[in-house]
């Protein structure tokens, strides 16, 4: 499996380029609209699905993109249990779902809201849910030492005190994270705040959460988890749990809130007509300034917030959201509406730069299971960090990358990358909680834990590496 293709063709666009590209795009898009599409048929087989993922040639059967229900985190029960899910066209798969949904319900809340969630474990093994990207105290962080046995419950209670962002909830039990996420335990947790609300970004049916992942189905169409030390790479994409999905869109501006929920696969997102996507935010919320890009890389656990402008295409145009790394078609966007609406905002947000680190720590991601030569042990604490102190953390790898590096308990700012791709990318600006380390790279970040004392985690978010032990405890003191 080759996931090492590097994003050579990243092109940071200027406003002027965007305008000319958008008009050029109209020509190309006609080609796509001529492509033959057969809308949903009943009872499609596994074989249909294998043909449906093809990038070109032959009929592609597509299914309506699914959306998990939207719920509030106040008084929410999250029941982790075995369920079945229709992946599209009546193709039923066994999954491990939150509240029977695959992916789990989309949790939405505002900054300042109280979260009270009861996790119920109806899985056949221990589990615990972590709120990736949420800054919560140790007791609410859902770490491996908090895992609960089958039949048990865990109560989370915390107040949301952080910027608007798309976060990612998923299990985090010791050595079982990859399996449980793969089998369907994953969902989006969207926080809004007054800064974001004032921007009047596309919302309601114009705001589309996309949980991207890959999967391999067995002969009974069930998700089959066959991890390898280099990671679990599935044979097909599933978007919001839908195979070969399509979405009808109007001639309007849409906001896509995208989460890479794959165990190991990195996506290189682009539109089939090479039109720009306006990147407005990432892991930790809005960027200081929006930027137009025609390719965006997303490693495991990273989030991307983009505006896509469909206003100037003729009706019946089809544009595909693609993964340029695998060549996969991820989502077919079918443009059609009686009228044109919306505006494409340029966004900005104030981001205070971290400066003057007082301590530097270096973390080497070694082989497939170690950080600084050590595998994770639940009760070993490898370093302590004073609360409120700005530090420089240096991540580097001794091979077996990519390693998407993730930190709990604080967001960080990426300040440099040397070796490998040897540059920073626009989607790495602002506040991050996960940053991609490719082979030979050294990435420096500035970080400050300012909310809570307690034990947190640093780990590789390639879930198979995490489960093999590429994870460490540290304590904020
Ligand atoms: Cu998304 Cu420690 O995890
Ligand atoms: Cu790794």
- Number of helices in the DSSP assignment: 5
Rg, rounded, reads 21 Å
Bound molecules: CU-O-CU linkage, copper (II) ion
Strand numbers in spatial order across the main sheet: 1-19-18-21-16-13-14
- Main β sheet profile: 7 strands, mixed
As a percent range, the share of strand residues is: 35-45%
Q: Overall 3D geometry?
A: globular
Detail the poorly predicted runs: 1-57
> Helix coverage percent of residues?
under 10%
Structural class: mainly beta
Number of strands: 33
Mean pLDDT: 90
Structure keywords:
mainly beta; 5 helices; disordered N terminus; binds CU-O-CU linkage; binds copper (II) ion
Please provide a brief summary of the model.
With 477 residues, this protein is mainly β. It has helices at residues 15-34, 46-52, 177-182, 194-197, 463-468, and strands spanning 12-13, 37-39, 60-64, 70-71, 74-86, 92-98, 106-110, 114-122, 129-132, 153-159, 165-171, 187-192, 207-215, 236-239, 245-251, 253-260, 267-271, 277-282, 285-293, 296-298, 303-309, 318-323, 328-340, 359-366, 370-371, 381-385, 390-397, 403-407, 412-418, 434-437, 442-448, 454-460, 471-476.
């Amino acid at each position: 499996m080759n996931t090492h293709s590097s994003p050579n063709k990243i092109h940071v666009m200027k406003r002027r380029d965007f305008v000319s590209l958008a008009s050029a795009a109209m020509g190309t898009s006609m080609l796509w609209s001529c492509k033959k599409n057969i809308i949903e048929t009943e009872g499609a087989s596994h074989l249909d699905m294998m043909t449906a993922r093809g990038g070109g040639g032959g009929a592609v059967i597509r299914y309506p993109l699914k959306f998990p229900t939207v719920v509030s985190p106040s008084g929410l029960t999250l029941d982790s249990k075995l369920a079945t899910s229709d992946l599209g066209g009546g193709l039923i798969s066994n999954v491990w779902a939150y509240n029977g949904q695959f992916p789990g319900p989309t949790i939405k809340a505002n900054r300042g809201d109280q979260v009270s969630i009861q996790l119920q474990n109806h899985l056949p093994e221990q589990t615990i849910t972590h709120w990736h990207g949420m800054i919560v105290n140790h007791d609410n962080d859902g770490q491996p030492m908090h895992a609960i046995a089958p039949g048990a419950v865990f109560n989370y209670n915390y107040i949301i005190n952080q910027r608007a962002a798309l976060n990612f909830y998923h299990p985090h039990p010791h050595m079982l994270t990859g399996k449980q996420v793969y089998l369907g335990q994953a969902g989006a947790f969207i926080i809004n705040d007054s800064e974001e609300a004032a921007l009047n970004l596309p919302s309601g049916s114009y705001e589309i959460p996309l949980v991207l992942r890959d999967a391999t189905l067995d002969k009974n169409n069930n998700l089959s988890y066959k991890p390898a030390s280099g990671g679990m790479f599935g044979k097909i994409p599933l978007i919001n749990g839908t195979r070969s999905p399509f979405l009808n869109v109007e001639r309007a501006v849409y906001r896509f809130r995208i989460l890479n929920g794959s165990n190991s696969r990195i996506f290189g997102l682009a539109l089939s007509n090479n039109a720009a996507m306006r990147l407005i935010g990432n892991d930790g919320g809005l960027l200081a300034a929006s930027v137009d890009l025609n390719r965006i890389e997303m490693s495991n656990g990273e989030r991307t917030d983009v505006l896509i402008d469909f206003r100037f295409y003729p009706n019946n145009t089809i544009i595909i959201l693609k993964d340029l790394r695998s060549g996969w078609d991820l989502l077919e966007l079918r443009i059609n509406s009686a009228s044109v609406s919306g505006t494409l905002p340029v966004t900005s947000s104030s981001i205070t730069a971290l400066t003057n680190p007082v301590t530097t720590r270096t973390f080497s991601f070694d082989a497939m299971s170690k950080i600084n030569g050590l595998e994770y042990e639940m009760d070993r604490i490898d370093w302590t960090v004073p609360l409120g102190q700005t530090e420089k953390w240096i991540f580097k790898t001794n091979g077996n990358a990519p390693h998407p590096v993730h930190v709990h308990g604080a967001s960080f700012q990426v300040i440099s990358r040397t070796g490998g791709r040897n540059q920073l990318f626009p989607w790495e600006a602002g506040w991050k909680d996960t940053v991609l380390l490719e082979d030979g790279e050294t990435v420096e970040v500035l970080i400050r834990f300012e909310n809570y004392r307690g034990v947190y985690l640093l780990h590789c978010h390639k879930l198979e590496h995490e489960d093999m032990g590429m994870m460490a405890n540290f304590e904020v003191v």
